[in-house]
Amino acid sequence: MTVAIAWFFIAFSAASLLFSLVLCALSVIALRREHLWMLAFEDRIKERWAVLPSISIVIPAFNEEDSIIASIKSVLKSRYPRVEVIVVNDGSADQTLDRVLEAFPLKAVAVPAGAGLSSEPVRGVWSDQDGRIVLIDKHNGGKADALNAGINLARSPLVCVVDADTLLERDTLLQLAEPFFDNPTMLVAGGFIRLRRPERSGPLALVLYWLQELEYTRSYGCFRAGLNVIHANVIISGALGLFRRAAVLEVGGYDPLAVGEDMELVLRLHEHYMGKQRSYAIAQIGFAVSRTAACDSLDLLGRQRMRWQRGLLSSLRAYRSMVFSPRAGAVGMVALPYLSIFDALGPIVEVLGLLFLAGTTLLGVLPSSFFAMFFATLFIGSINNLLCLTLDQIYLGRQSSLGARAMMWLMGLTEPFWYHWVNLWWRIRGTYTYLNTVQTRTAWSMREKA
After folding, report:
1. Which of 157, 132, 170, 159 is nearest to 42 (CA)?
2. How many CA atoms lie within 13 A of 299 on its CB side?
3. Sequence-separated (6 or more) residues with CB below 8 Å from residue 240
4. Which domains are assigned to the chain?
5. Which DSSP symbol is given to 366?
6. pTM above 0.90, yes or no
7. What is the pLDDT of residue 398?
């Protein structure tokens, strides 16, 4: 019996990492396609410039006085023909509202009629002369509630959701919008989230920055890119996502009670369009980049990871009927089972496996070869990390300096043997919190706005 349990833990760990390698292999197809697509990008944009659909960028903000102006300016600098910026101040207790009013020539206007999505009452609306910048001030209701308020008043057929601490690159909107031009069934296009260097100095902040860069590269460049190939993307980051507004309105907007409002909305779109048997597409665009702030302390990083775990569990529970459902296609047969088994249950299984194999080896119940095999499976994780970094460099070319590549490779080699286990502990804590907490509204995210 003891040997059978030991083999189970070894097989579970190996299966998780081998599946990651399969997705990494699929991401080669996706990234190569995207790389070839970008070769003629400029020529296509010149032809389509006059007919590209307008975009409303919704920036929800709660206590973002230090970052909101930079975020708005990054959007205004975007190379895109028609952009409307909607800033939603969700009852901030700091100077967020005043900073926006001071930075831009805005005048109070009557509150226009919305599209019907539920949100807390709007206290005031300001706009510039051209209607290019709109500021909404509302009672605090959480991030999802603020997003609904912004989408309500958006005037464009496409709505881009951007976090208040996120900066867009010059061509990000063009790269997100073009798939909508080519594919009339496109519902959502997500971008690649990369990190800004931490403001806090010190070795810990830098190590955490490189670890997070590795995680984001692995998640966006391999996991989500691989799911693109089989049309099974279920997570579009709340920091950067372009939506067809009509589709969001059709399914009722963001859920104010969702823990992870971004994943929940994407799964609801999947479920709705599958149920109606209507063609649709949801894609991840690797070249469309935004930069957000990195967590520069273990406390912030741990709280972020615990929140992500709660969001994952909440969404999996809400859409559990899709798991292993042939009607849900690759979403139900591949993406959701993987997340359920290896991301939801995996942290508990892996930590129990480590404790069991270490304990039985020390007590002499099992030969040390079992623990060695378990330890050896972690090298698969190192291989997966290095492959993801290699693909990122070949097709997306973001880690250009030699020093940057060296640090990322060092983290990729060593991460499965130490940081991976710290992350698992945070996710276990997130699971415990989820099981013992009643969610009353969508929380303010990355830094928890404490």
Report:
1. 170
2. 3
3. 160, 161, 162, 163, 166, 168, 172, 176, 190, 191, 193, 288, 290
4. 20-53+157-337 (3.90.550)
5. S
6. yes
7. 63
Length of the chain: 450
* pLDDT higher than threshold 70 for residue 315: yes
DSSP secondary structure string, 318-344?
A: HTGGGTT-GGGHHIIIIIHHHIIIIII
Q: How far apart are CA 356 and CA 288, in angstroms?
A: 44
What CA–CA distance (Å, rounded) separates 191 from 177? Answer: 11
Residue 441: band (very low, low, confident or very high) from pLDDT cuts 50, 70, 90: low
CA-CA distance, 190 to 286, in Å (whole number)? 8
Question: What is the predicted pLDDT for the residue at 450?
Answer: 35
> What mean pLDDT is predicted for residues 422-431?
97
Is residue 276 over pLDDT 90? yes
The C-alpha atoms of residue 298 and residue 208 are separated, in whole angstroms, by 8
Residue written as tokens 């190379």?
A: 79
Looking at per-residue pLDDT, the higher value among 366 and 399 belongs to 366
Distances (CA, A) of 292 to 152, 231, 284, 343, 447: 25, 27, 17, 24, 11
Best CA proximity match to 138, nearest among 240, 75, 62: 62
Q: Tell me the per-residue pLDDT of 162-213, one tens digit each, with 9 for 90 and over.
A: 999 999 999 999 999 999 988 999 999 999 999 988 777 788 988 999 999 9
In the numeric block, which tokens belong to residue 68? Answer: 């909101």
* Those residues with Cβ within 8 angstroms of residue 297's Cβ, 6 or more apart along the chain or in another chain: 200, 204, 205, 208
How far is Cα 234 from Cα 324, in angstroms, rounded to an integer? 15
CA dist., res. 70 & res. 166, Å (int): 9
Pairing of strands 133-138, 240-244: unpaired
Reported as a single tens digit per residue, the pLDDT across 368-390 is: 888 889 988 999 999 999 999 99
CA of 77: how far to CAs of 81, 85, 135, 284, in Å?
11, 12, 18, 23
| Amino acid letter, 148 | N
For residue 2, pLDDT over 70 is answered with yes
Contact (CB, 8 A) for 150 and 60: yes
